[in-house]
């Protein structure tokens, strides 16, 4: 079995990026030109997977069984970060849970737009998380430009900022990776 490749999110949580049975992981690289791009990707993750009513969180309630779907920005270089989607599920329910996440992700990629109320709510949650999480360790990748960006006024920021350029294409790339995994799993089951 492959060893985990764990990366740390802005909130100090580890995400294992190695896909294996019962652990689904898909990643895509995203461009960063300035600190505002970091905030925009973090806010998008909060909008799609961060609240009780967010689309990927709802997908994690398939048939009343809870499983945590995580979408997070992970640091890379000063010009490029990694957008990662992961979830762990039992082997028995992996196919059904993967289908549920695929449906939710397809809807997000097809719809494209994040509504202004959802975007502002996500920005407020993001600012709250940044203000209430433990300080980053001294040698954290998050403590260097452009990742060390901060939101002073989330509502004003959200009003003047839209979701990151190309987010639909990046979601579509994650969707393709999950679809390939599902097709491979169903091929093995035949």
List descriptors:
190 residues; alpha+beta; three-stranded antiparallel sheet
List the helices and strands and how they pair.
Elements lengths: L5 E3 L5 E3 L6 E9 L3 H15 L5 H5 L10 E5 L5 E9 L5 H18 L4 H17 L21 H7 L6 H23 L1
Describe, in short, the structure shown.
This protein is an alpha+beta fold. It contains six helices and five strands; from the N terminus they run E-E-E-H-H-E-E-H-H-H-H.
Shape: globular
Q: How many helices in DSSP terms?
A: 6
* Major pleated sheet: 3 strands, antiparallel
Euclidean distance between termini CA atoms = 22 Å
Q: Unreliable stretches, pLDDT < 50, 5 or more residues?
A: none
């Amino acid at each position: 079995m492959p060893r985990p490749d764990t990366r740390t999110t802005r909130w100090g949580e580890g995400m294992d990026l190695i896909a294996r049975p019962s652990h689904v992981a898909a990643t895509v690289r995203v461009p960063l030109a300035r600190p505002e791009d970091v905030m925009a990707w973090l806010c998008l993750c909060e909008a799609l997977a961060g609240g009780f009513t967010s689309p990927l969180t709802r997908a994690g309630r398939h048939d009343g069984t809870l499983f945590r779907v995580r979408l997070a920005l992970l640091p890379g270089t000063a010009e490029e970060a990694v957008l990662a989607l992961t979830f762990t599920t039992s082997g028995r329910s992996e196919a059904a849970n993967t289908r549920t996440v695929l449906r939710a992700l397809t809807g997000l990629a097809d719809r494209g737009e994040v509504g202004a109320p959802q975007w502002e709510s996500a920005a407020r949650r993001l600012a709250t998380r940044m203000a209430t999480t433990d300080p980053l360790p001294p040698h954290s990748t998050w403590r260097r430009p452009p990742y060390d960006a901060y939101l002073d006024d989330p509502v004003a920021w959200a009003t003047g900022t839209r979701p990151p350029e190309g987010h639909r294409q990046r979601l579509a790339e994650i969707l393709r990776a999950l679809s390939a995994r599902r097709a491979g799993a169903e091929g093995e089951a035949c």
